[in-house]
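Encoded backbone
================
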Amino acid sequence: MLPAEIIRAKRDRQRLTEAQIQAFVQGLVDESWSEGQVAALAMAILLNGMDRAECVALTRAMTLSGQVLDWRDAGLAGPVLDKHSTGGVGDKVSLVLAPIVAACGGVVPMVSGRGLGHTGGTLDKLQALPGYTTAPPRDQLLRVLRHAGCALIGADAGLAPADRRLYAIRDVTATVESVPLITASILSKKLAAGLQGLVMDVKLGKGAFMNRLADARALATSLVEVAEGAGLPCRALITDMDQVLGRSAGNALEVAESLAFLTGAEREPRLLALTLALAAQMLALGGLAPTLAAGQALAEASLVSGRAAECFARMVAGLGGPADVLTDARLPAAPVQIDLAAPRDGVLVAMDTRALGLVVVGLGGGRRRASDAVDPRVGLSQLRPLGTWLRAGEPMLRVHAASAADAQQALQSARAALTLRDAMPADAMPGPVVIETLGPAR
């Protein structure tokens, strides 16, 4: 199958056959397709789309391009479940959700990523814990899963190698936004991880990659339908990212907030609501709860009893982190910490969440280039939710910086990202954190 003929077919809005798709994926892996040819087909897919059968075939072929994990003989005690988020600011849900589901009987080998653009990455957050390894050998991973029920780790190089090359080319050819290619990219890695159930958290709003409900709904629908078509039970939640999730953004700061959440010291309401909603979906998918209401009750009980915190502690210790993480996480602290004072009395009516994510990147908490090192100490804490009334001089947030100059720049940018008014306009009132749920109801 000549690459040019496959490109021509999609250019001319034809439906690609399974054999053509497999030839493309094989060309990605063995590099018999040049970067130019891969880019041309990616652009044709972006412009002309793929139907559901094509997307399922692409996802399956990319899944089978490398190693596919099989947990059946691993001695695990429960269903293998996972959650994936499309990325947000302050999104530390994975850190608390995985141990909650593990405490309820699930097994969560959560393959996570690093920060992308203005959004934080779970692996960067966990590596703020001294000694924590995100790439354990298989025998260590299995020990942790058996003992703790969850392990938050990075993707093995052998999982879906076709996606690795395709994504790198998409990233520099303006084809990242294609819904079929996003779908195949996410799901090929999840299918290769040997899951029995997947819940997708599709972010919508100022701090998300999707700013329009129609776009978020199209992606969520594609993910659910293609996953189900490939044999993976899946649900998707469209969730609000018009404000930072929780009260912090930055690697060590988000780990500290997650520890406070698990131990009950502080649970920000929106973070709690989203975490419980996702947990309920995962537990229902795994057959661990008969209904969503029952799943949410189980998740809440795991928090109140401390079982979720214990699972997190066992996971961290098993992966080389602090053995007493719940009482002494030994997280690094920034040397400069300065509050941003409210310039006037007023209510916080708007937040440029993406800009706040970029403030964290500017402080060194994210990457401008793939080769950049991340400073785990820096970021923002004590963020106020929309609708908060503030007196002049009250702190709106706290900047954690490596230097006084960095702190001043961050204060200036953060001030521009927050809007105070005399009253909250009726059309600006924040809605629920879960906007829509897609997938068969339970």
User: Anything to note?
Assistant: The chain is about 45% helix and 15% strand. The first strand starts at residue 81 and ends at 85. The mean pLDDT is 93.
